[in-house]
Amino acid sequence: MKRVVSVSIGSSKRNHKVFANIKGVEFEIERIGTDGDIKKAIEIIKSLDGKVDAFGMGGIDIVLYGGGKNYVIREAIPIKNAAKKTPLVDGTGVKNTFEKWVIKYLQENNIIDFKGKTALVVCALDRYKLAEGLYEAGCKLLLGDALFALGIPFMIKSLKTFYYLAALLVPFIIKLPFSMLYPNDDKKEQDPKNLQKYWKYYEIADIIAGDYKYIQKYMPDSLEGKIIITNTITKEDVEDLKVRKLKMLVTTTPEFDGRSFGTNVVEAILVALTGKRLEEMSQQEVEKLIKEIDFKPRVEIFY
After folding, report:
1. Is the pLDDT of residue 41 over 90?
2. What parts of the sequence cross the membrane (predicted)?
3. What is the CB-side half-sphere exposure of residue 74 using CA atoms within 13 A?
4. Contacts of 1 (CB under 8 A, 6+ apart)
5. Which residue(s) pair with 233 in the sheet?
6. Which of 1.20.58, 1.20.120, 3.40.50, 2.60.40 is the CATH number of 2-92+260-296?
7. For 9-22, how does the pLDDT look when each residue is reduced to its tens digit (9 = 90+)?
8. Global pTM value
């Protein structure tokens, strides 16, 4: 049996373990959250290093893309270096191949007609291929990196502007404490005045896409008629979205026992299956393997 462990900087309340058969191979897939504690994540990785087949790193990326270059996030370096024997991945490779393909899949199979729709991508820095896919499918974009990640009341409305700003800002962003950039806690802002600057973009958008923790932290009580395209989702999240009258939920990663894990888990599964480190695999090889496994997006229509 292959064992994959996702060590996440996110909440331990979302911990989960499943067993799955993938290409005839039995897998134990587990997610362990550390509630924002990077030192604890490092300790867990060190304790399991060499004892599992692949690690996923959740709740934090190793790299961000800007100006045609990948920049390593400063606080991710000690986590990455904690794994000496077992391969550790953060999902970037899958994000940059699979997520754009998912948009094409949804369009070609007449699941969503993207043409003319407004898509809010809450944070495109770590999901720029998803944003590209939505744009190429015919969406008008609202890229919320400045507002959702940095709290700056500015909405980016074109990929050209996004890439220009990313080239300027990413070298500085990677030096910030990750707690400033990513909503790892489960608390929502309570002051409606603070939330209104986010809510109006949810109301404008037909499609809300990106990391679910960003989406969840700021989303309004009603999502009636909206489509969410995201990643990590629990059974509790699904019930919450039904209460908010969401029209359709798409997760770019497949469902295992009612749970959609992050892209880091999918990437770790690929590494465990092949016995190769991610840097030893070409983009074409990753795409081919995903197709062979027949990983498809999860689509649920509620209303």
Report:
1. yes
2. 162-182
3. 11
4. 26, 27, 28
5. 260
6. 3.40.50
7. 888 888 889 999 99
8. 0.88
